[in-house]
Amino acid sequence: MKLSRLFRLCRPRHVVPAVLLLVSPCAWAAGTRAPGGGFSWNGIGTPSGSVPWNILVLLTLLTLLPALVLAMTPFVRLLVVFHFLRQALGTASTPSNQTLIGLSLILTYFLMQPVGAAIAQTAIIPFEQGQFDAVEAVARGSGPLRHFMLKYARERDLALFLELSKEPRPARPEEFDMRVVVPAYILSELKAGFQIGAALYLPFLVVDMVVAAITTSVGMFQLPPVVISTSLKILLFVMVDGWNLLVGSLVKSFS
To answer: Is the pTM of this model over 0.70?
Structure first.
């Protein structure tokens, strides 16, 4: 990308709609139509308004990004599974939290890149070309993200939040409100992460039980069984190329 194009994309009137695509549920809840047909955030201005207000809105929305990355991407499932793996191996702080979070973020970017490309094609690029305003960009950009989340959200979770929101069941998936899709998706991801984590625990639990039975039967009480079992579990995980198998299986579960 040329530097001139990069600087043009970094202007507030272009960056704000791009951030709105990520925070569209919050933007639609807090935003209202301005008298001139634009979009205002509780009356403080439009994206084409003064630069200080745009910067204030942009910085405010950026504070929501960490929570939205958790709620609207595969990050939750990946991080839950990696923490289960670390506990099953018996290594209290290896890999570190920073390593697991970094790996989860990289895999999240890898998995969400097609969705981001679809949002850019349907919303961001046309907005840059002046084909529609920020409100329409938010509406168009939320489509690919909604489609991604609906693909992995369970019907039971969707039905729960439809009932809680007191909304009628939509005729088409595209008609689901984002305030229903987002919590249903994160609940489904938590369930999937715990299911994978439980399956990960089983082989390592067998190793722990076998080592504990052997050391107890031979009277080896001076050496804790966890010392032996942890070494065996790490050796087993390395021999089967566990990281490759685990990451490959996680990525394929989103294909």
So the answer is: yes
